[in-house]
Design a protein that fits this description.
Layout lengths: L11 H10 L1 E4 L3 E7 L6 E6 L6 H18 L7 E7 L8 H14 L14
Helix pairs in contact: 2-3
Length: 122
């Protein structure tokens, strides 16, 4: 699935509002801040500070986070603005660990709808 531009949180004021007013969930590799919105779709933003590393490393972390989010995005309900904040230990982690931490945070925040498997009742 392709993540469209409208699914990205780009407005710096809203970004700050999500960080300040939203609820947070912490993981050793990431922090997730989420705040409900009135939009018919959800948006996400990624924050990677200089503590993580130089520009090349920060951009690599952002690309890997974006890809991990893209793989899970179909299970995210509409109407949420989210900010993922990378922590320094995220740099150099295997992709499976990055995806696992994103998935764990979304589940803990109750923002990941579980898909029904074969043979399960609705």
């Amino acid at each position: 699935m392709r993540l469209r531009r409208r699914m990205r949180l780009t407005d710096s004021d809203r970004f700050q509002q999500v960080r300040e007013d939203g609820r947070s969930w912490v993981h050793p590799l990431l922090v997730l801040c989420a705040l409900p919105s009135d939009l018919p779709y959800s948006r996400f933003g990624i924050s990677v500070s200089r503590w993580v590393g130089k520009a090349v490393e920060r951009n690599r972390v952002k690309r890997r986070l974006r890809e991990a989010i893209r793989g899970l995005w179909e299970g995210v309900p509409a109407g949420w603005d989210m900010v993922f904040v990378a922590r320094p230990p995220l740099k150099g982690q295997p992709f499976g660990r990055v995806t696992g931490s994103v998935s764990e945070l979304l589940r803990r925040a109750d923002l990941l709808l579980e898909k029904k498997g074969r043979g399960e009742s609705p």
